[in-house]
Amino acid sequence: MKNTIPIALLQAEAKNGVVTVDVLKPYLLHELKIEPEKIAVVTGNQRELDDIDLFVQSCPIEYIITIEALKEGWDCPFAYVFCSVKQVSSSTAAEQLLGRVLRMPYARRFVIEDLNRAYAHLATTSFAKAATELKDKLIAMGFEELDIAEYVRQYEPDDNQNDFFDGGGNAQPVRSKELEVVLEVATMPDFNKLDKSERSQLTATTTDNDTVIVKVRGEVSDNLKKVIIKSAGKPAKKKSIQQDLRIHNARIEILRSPAERGEIFGSLPQLCALVQGELELIEPEILLDVNEWDLLDHLAKLPKFTVRESSSLWDIRLLRGIRL
Fold first, then answer.
1. Nearest-CA neighbor of 132 among 210, 241, 239?
2. How many other CB atoms sit within 10 Å of the CB of residue 83?
3. Of 66, 81, 58, nearest to 6 (Cα)?
4. What's the CA gap between 212 and 224, in Å, rounded?
5. Could you report the per-residue pLDDT of 238-294, keeping only the tens digit for each?
6. Are strands 272-275 and 202-206 parallel, antiparallel or unpaired?
7. What single DSSP character describes residue 164?
8. Residue 170: how many CB atoms within 10 A of its CB?
9. Quick one: which of 252, 251, 249, 202 has its CA closest to 224?
10. Each residue of 119-128: b (16+ CB within 10 Å) or e?
11. How far apart are CA 138 and CA 98, in angstroms?
12. Is the dihedral of CA 145, 198, 235, 183 positive or negative?
């Protein structure tokens, strides 16, 4: 029988790094209180999965620590969460690593949408740019632009999350107005052709190798799109950026709330209850009369809140005018 327990893949740094296997495993054991039998280490010297069948229902493994074994040629069919503290910059390496958790071969659909997704947590600055290049590969595999816009979410860390091991913070989905797209263009965009609002959305910097990196936050207008595409350079690059901007705007549309879309409630559901075998709308008399329910019997409990009663005495005198 197949094992269906989700597995977290943890990629540690090499021996000359900071967060090595010898640092990561003790943290799981002593800080997170994870049982030793649920952890396996797969490195050049430690091959703790060689005699373990992950497909067995009784397999206890839930966490796998590795350094390089996550690349092509190594498979973990139930890995839905990927965590890495290692610098990853190339699109090929990003594809190989994310591919370990993208497939989710035995996943079932849950009512809670967050359980229907794979997650990647990375302590690196260069990975995000490399990961964006995966869209071309996903489209080549048969994914539609709208699929990519819907299935790939951008998250931002909580302010209380200070480091890789901080369990106090929680990553929060980026709101539609804050969604950002990062693009690589040939020349600096012409800011003079943008209005004040569009200029506030756009930031552009030049790297050491004279590459221009453009970041756009929020929905990209037609005019802003034209300015960015014009600075892209070669036709093939312009076509790629056009695609990036379409996917970006599609993501924003998906993330918008019903109120942001201008949707209006046509009707609201009404609460009903069975009264003497018949379904009746909940009205005050249903609760008060039929069921003898009294609001005073169910006082609200407000911790650390006390009511201080005070009164003031007012002496109001009405003087009747006297006519002479």
1. 241
2. 18
3. 81
4. 16
5. 988 998 899 889 888 888 888 888 887 777 778 887 778 888 887 777 766 655 666
6. unpaired
7. T
8. 10
9. 202
10. ebebbeeebe
11. 12
12. negative
Q: Report the distance separating Cα 85 and Cα 19, nearest Å.
A: 7
d(CA 197, CA 221): 10
* Closest of 141, 136, 142, 154 to residue 242, by C-alpha: 136
Task: Take residue 190 and report the two structure tokens written for it.
Answer: 């012409």
- pLDDT at residue 162, as a whole number: 42
> For residue 298, what are its two tokens?
């169910």
**Domains along the chain with CATH numbers:** 1-126 (3.40.50.300), 133-259 (no CATH), 270-302 (no CATH)
pLDDT in tens, 153-192: 666 555 544 444 444 445 555 666 778 888 888 899 999 9
- The answer to whether the predicted template modeling score (pTM) of the entire model surpasses 0.85 is no
Q: Given this model, what pLDDT does residue 229 score?
A: 93
